[in-house]
Design brief:
Elements (H helix, E strand, L loop, with lengths): L10 H16 L2 H23 L11 H32 L3 H4 L5 H31 L6 H25 L3 H17 L14 H5 L3 H14 L6 H25 L6
Helix pairs in contact: 1-5, 2-3, 2-5, 3-5, 3-6, 3-7, 3-9, 5-6, 5-10, 6-9, 6-10, 9-10
């Protein structure tokens, strides 16, 4: 009793938790996959056709090409956060969080399992929206490796934030407040629909303190080859923020903060 007989890492447990997270959002794919795609299409329709018809180029790009990476990343961000936050909050509210805490899974293994679900959901959404974006705009992907890297960083960053939010929230109202007053404003005010270079001071400088700005800007560089900030700086900032978030999430899972009585 109490001895880990499956090696230093419980790979079976991690795979099982990851598979559960994937099956959880795939069971309601109309809500978790199809609905975000419809939302992205509506954003493109409204901003590109209604507002962007008479607009000139932004950063040397037609508005539709500029808008596409921002819409893609905003959808990835929202889905990554929703996957982990809803999983933990639902388990706590329904009282079955014990089913996740009792198996022989370390904090790192729990963290990896939850993040696998976020990465899978974000990757699926990004692949579908990215394919549609290429078809609609007729432009290719300038730097595919950069684009994939920033999509992965977005999934890890917002998946980690979703874990933190799920641990903090004790009911769905608290989770809705975190989403509406923190995550949504940060994603909308990060250059999704505009270039931050067009903002007056001090808003231009403040935008560079928003880590989500670097996610969107980095993805825009990967797709179009242009960006507001140096992509290498964005990569370093995102890696550091992801490391800090995941370290805090690991610490909270390890201590049972607001998870164990």
């Amino acid at each position: 009793m109490g001895v880990r007989r499956f090696g230093r890492v419980n790979w079976l447990g991690v795979r099982t938790l990851a598979a559960r997270e994937v099956m959880r959002f795939m069971a309601v794919w109309q809500q978790t996959i199809f609905a975000p795609l419809m939302t992205a299409a509506l954003f493109v329709l409204v901003f590109a056709l209604a507002l962007g018809r008479g607009r000139g180029e932004i950063m040397g790009l037609p508005y539709l090409e500029f808008l596409g990476p921002g819409i893609l990343m905003m959808t990835v961000i929202q889905n990554s956060f929703a996957n982990t936050s809803s999983s933990i909050t639902s388990a706590k509210v329904q009282g079955n969080i014990v089913d996740t805490l009792m198996p022989p899974l370390s904090a790192g293994e729990l963290l990896a399992g939850y993040l696998c679900g976020s990465v899978a959901r974000a990757g699926l959404v990004a692949a579908v929206i990215g394919t549609g974006m290429v078809i609609v705009t007729g432009a290719g992907i300038a730097h595919p490796l950069w684009a994939v890297t920033f999509v992965l960083l977005a999934a890890l960053m917002l998946g980690g934030l979703g874990i933190l939010a799920g641990i903090l929230a004790q009911k769905f109202d608290q989770m809705a407040a975190i989403t509406n007053f923190i995550i949504t404003p940060l994603s909308f005010l990060s250059g999704t629909f505009y270039s931050v270079q067009s903002l007056p001071e001090p808003f231009r400088s403040l935008s560079h303190w928003n880590p989500i700005f670097y996610l969107i800007d980095g993805a825009r560089f990967g797709v179009t080859g242009v960006s507001d900030a140096p992509p290498l700086r964005g990569l370093v900032v995102c890696v550091l923020v992801v490391a800090a978030i995941l370290m805090l999430a690991w610490r909270w899972l390890d201590s049972g903060f607001r998870m164990k009585p």
